[in-house]
Amino acid sequence: MIDLDSALSQIEKDFGPNTVMRLGDSPRQQVDVIPTGSLALDRALGIGGLPRGRIVEIFGPESSGKSTLCLHAIANAQRAGGTVAYIDTEHAVDPIYAKNLGVDIDNMLISQPDTAEHALEVADVLVRTGKITTLVIDSVAALATRAEIEGDYGDSHVGLLARLMSQAMRKLTGTLSNTNTLAIFVNQLRDVIGGFGYGPKETTTGGRALRFYSSVRLDVRRIETEKSGDEATGNRVRVKVVKNKLAAPFKQAEFSIVYGQGISREAELIDIGTKLGIVKKSGAWFSVPDGDESIRLGQGKEQSRLTLAGDPALADNIEQRIRDTWNTPF
Q1: Which pTM does this prediction carry?
Q2: What sections of the sequence does the record tag as coiled-coil (predicted)?
Q3: CATH 3.10.129.10 matches 271-326
Q4: What percentage of the chain carries pLDDT values higher than 70?
Q5: Is the pLDDT assigned to residue 194 strictly greater than 70?
Q6: Choice between 303 and 229, residue whose per-residue pLDDT is larger
């Protein structure tokens, strides 16, 4: 019978160093993250953003802000010097909107594949290059298998996409970890048909594999339409971290998405600052204490938001005060 040390030496010779190691041999590595564009969501995630080297699923109803969240993550990855790729299975990405959110569209790789097999194969090849920081597949619900594309209307293709996704998750998980690539899968919700009157009424598409392999799952919901007078200016969005393998799950974050501009950093600074006492509200007026003086932002949240948008230094000051109060580096 071969002894353990000889076995470990043989394994290392055959498969490379660190194939088998003792759990306590080295301290846990710090997880690299990509900020989401929302200060509140970064804090709710517990690590300051979306983890690289992992799979993240962002799901929710239509027009809830899922793609906006992805574009902000892509913009932040590019600002950090990373290369990004967007697999647009819905054929709906808007370059003008992406540019407004800070995405460098000239350097963003994009693919609009016709089949699910094509999309997942492109994703696999891109990740294996080791050069991609963030990969987005938008969306799983729009993935159609080759059999479905080539078949007739009314043909049954039960379980094909689920099996394909299961295979893709098994192939991608290790490669993503080795290349430190963040993969974001956008998904939609479907009503659960049948059942016995209890349990969840909604489910995501593409089977259970994506839910199982995801390190983080974000449930994105639009909770109200924000207005300035009678004019709609954006949506109020709530994101719940329903799964988190890197920090405590089930935390929530709320923020505003302004039409044509994306997540409003300034509105979020006002919301969080007011809760923490950094921004003062008196009646409809918002102000920021500054020593013995007070800097008036404006009457109403929208006017105050515009004031901060025109004064980046003041916005940075408020953000730093928030971070100092939270006592978090991110």
Answers
A1: 0.91
A2: none
A3: no
A4: 94
A5: no
A6: 303
Residue type, 17: P
SS (H, E, C) the chain: CCCHHHHHHHHHHHHCCCCCCCCCCCCCCCCCEECCCCHHHHHHHCCCCEECCCEEEEEECCCCCHHHHHHHHHHHHHHCCCEEEEEECCCCCCHHHHHHCCCCHHHCEEECCCCHHHHHHHHHHHHHCCCEEEEEEECHHHCCCHHHHHCCCCCCCCCHHHHHHHHHHHHHHHHHHHHCCEEEEEEEEEECCCCCCCCCCEEECCCCHHHHHCCEEEEEEEEEEEEECCEEEEEEEEEEEEEECCCCCCCEEEEEEECCCEECHHHHHHHHHHHHCCCEEECCEEEEEECCEEEEEEECHHHHHHHHHCCHHHHHHHHHHHHHHHCCCC
